[in-house]
Design goal:
The complex is a heterodimer of chains A (184) and B (408). Chain A is built from eight helices and five strands; from the N terminus they run αααββααβααββα. By secondary structure, chain A is mostly helical. Classes of the chains: A mainly alpha (184), B mainly alpha (408).
């Protein structure tokens, strides 16, 4: 077990919330090849190593209720990007992963509705977005390609999975029979 | 009215663009709209719009919706011809194909009766009707396939900004309206195959049992039946194969979009404080600053060991030894009227004050003096005696003596 390659480097990044994808060699290949061994090793110290269906790795958060302030910001930023992509008519995944984005060309401040949503999570201008993207880069969702250019990385699929879950939950709730009116 | 084919096609040859415009126009065409289309698609010759409008009606390309009415419709045979020419296929509905199936079943029953009665004329009619129905089914299936393929191509190349959810709704419509019901009809154990098999059985029976001798027609119909049975299923399976990846892709995109929209809507309506946890995306962060490492423990121990001893602090629980100065000063001032009252009348008030309180400083002396002079129970008068000097703790006062007496 102790011969797991790059263990210290992998642990060091995962413990900080980083997601490891194909950009993160050689750790990524090591995790892919010996996922079960790593998962067992981390499970012994109470950490759950998740392997997403799109092949990237991360530690499951222990308590999703207590998330840092940055995470709602990332979520709102991501949902807005998806909402905008959906209105473009093409495949959302193709839109998200098939191009580089320029910070000033992002749709986030193009609609009053988006601006109001961002304001709720204290994101007011491009400077705040830049900070947000730096955080997303730290957790391995974004790769910066220059001052104001970036592209989304595979671990951004966590947002898409979350969207699918929300959609499913919503549809289940809608399909459920309405509660009976209270009787006296 | 019979139409001269030569004239009809001559007119069509010169007005192809106009005919396309008419074919693409949905619903009834009013005269004004007709003239607008004619002007928008001028013919090479210098015909007046009125002449073109008249010819459209004479050649029965446009038919009035009611006799003498202002509104016109493109004649159905012309519409079909234009659809064929412009490759603008219209899909056959499942109801239409079911109608054909019913028609085949009826024809098959009639053929059975005619065979039982050995009515050769009825058998011939049934043969012709069967052949016609089969041709229609074949043509409609072809056209439906063309329409579905055209729709798929349109989806892939569409540049207009139509949302993913709208596209998904449209593709679901095509799947649910055409592809799936059609497959239900044409599959190997479906109603179309059953009707075709029954028709084939009757046709073979006719070939074997009656005086019907048109064997080429019999062979032709049987061959067409075999072809149609295999062709129908293949057509719609192909359609499903074309549409399925698009359907899956749009389905996924649509659900993703719906999830994001739900999350944003909840944020908008509930606010961040009540935004559900499932809308946030958790990321693990282990806060190691709360778990001391070996070095930190060693440092803490060293600090404890090396810390110089010092006596523990002692808490003072007893009450304060004396009243605050301000309180004592106030109590002193409050006590002066009572003390003065006991000594009334006082001939020299300041002298009396300094005798009673020899260590009085200037501020206290003046405050006490003014309090007694202006007290409501006393009457104070500056006498006309010579001024005296009063030594205070921090200064000297020179004043004529003040006499204090009780109010009368």
């Amino acid at each position: 077990m102790n011969d797991l390659p790059h263990l210290a480097a992998i642990f060091d990044r995962l413990k900080r919330g980083c997601h490891l994808g194909p950009e993160d060699e050689p750790a990524y290949t090591a995790l892919r090849e010996r996922y079960d061994d790593y998962a067992r090793y981390f499970a012994a110290i109470g950490l759950r190593l998740a392997r997403h269906e799109r092949e990237f790795f991360y530690f499951e958060p222990e308590n999703p209720e207590s998330v840092p302030d940055t995470l709602p910001r990332i979520a709102v930023f991501s949902y807005i990007l998806i909402d905008y992509a959906a209105n473009q008519g093409g495949s959302i995944e193709e839109y998200l992963f098939g191009q580089n984005f320029l910070l000033p060309a992002l749709p986030h401040f193009g609609l009053d509705r988006y601006t109001a949503l961002l304001r709720q999570v204290e994101v007011h201008d491009l400077g705040d977005l830049r900070t947000l993207l730096k955080h997303m880069e730290r957790i391995g969702w974004v790769k910066s390609l220059g001052e104001d250019e970036f592209r989304l990385l595979r671990p951004f699929h966590r947002v898409l999975s979350q969207c699918l879950r929300l959609s499913e939950t919503g549809q289940t709730a809608e399909a459920a029979p309405a509660p009976a009116p209270p009787t006296e | 009215m019979k139409i001269n084919p030569q004239s009809f096609f001559n007119f069509c040859a010169g007005h192809a663009a106009l005919l396309r415009g008419l074919a693409e126009h949905d619903g009834e065409i009013a005269e004004a709209e007709g003239f607008r289309l004619i002007r928008a698609h001028p013919s090479p010759g210098e015909e007046l719009p009125e002449t073109v409008w008249r010819r459209l009606r004479e050649l029965q390309i446009l038919l009035p919706t009611e006799p003498g009415g202002e509104f016109h419709l493109l004649a159905e045979p012309v519409a079909r011809l234009l659809s064929y020419l412009f490759n603008d296929a219209k899909p056959a509905t499942p109801e239409l194909i079911r109608g054909y199936v019913l028609s085949l079943e009826n024809t098959s029953h009639r053929l059975g009766r005619a065979l039982a009665e050995e009515d050769v004329a009825q058998v011939r009619l049934a043969f012709e009707e069967t052949a016609q129905t089969l041709r229609r089914i074949h043509a409609d299936l072809e056209e439906t396939q063309q329409a579905i393929l055209a729709e798929v191509a349109r989806f892939k190349t569409e540049r207009a900004r139509v949302s993913v959810r709208e596209k998904y709704r449209r593709i679901v419509y095509w799947m649910e309206r055409y592809v799936e019901p059609m497959i239900e009809i044409v599959r190997a154990d479906g109603p179309l195959r059953a009707a075709l098999d029954e028709t084939a059985r009757r046709l073979r029976q006719a070939g074997e049992e009656t005086l019907f001798t048109d064997h080429p027609a019999l062979v032709r119909n049987l061959r067409f039946l075999r072809l149609l049975a295999a062709h129908a299923l293949r057509v719609f399976l192909q359609c499903r194969k074309e549409i399925q990846p698009l359907y899956e892709s749009l389905r996924r995109s649509s659900f993703i979009a719906e999830g994001a929209a739900r999350a944003l809507e909840q944020l908008q309506t509930e606010g961040l404080s009540r935004w559900p946890a499932e809308c946030r995306i958790g990321v693990a962060t282990l806060r190691f600053q709360n778990v001391p490492g070996d070095e930190a423990i060693a440092l803490a121990l060293r600090r404890v060991i090396e810390h110089p001893p010092e006596p523990a602090p002692v808490l003072q629980f007893s009450a304060e030894p004396s009243d605050p100065d301000a309180l004592r000063r106030l109590a002193w001032l409050e006590s002066l009227p009572e003390a003065a009252r006991a000594g009334l009348p006082i001939k020299d008030l300041l002298g009396w004050l300094l005798r009673e309180h020899p260590d009085t400083a200037m501020p206290e002396a003046l405050t006490a003096l003014s309090r007694l002079i202006f007290h409501r129970d006393f009457h104070a008068v500056f006498t006309e005696e010579a001024a005296r000097v009063y030594p205070l703790r921090d200064a000297q006062l020179e004043s004529a003596p003040v006499r204090l007496s009780a109010h009368e």
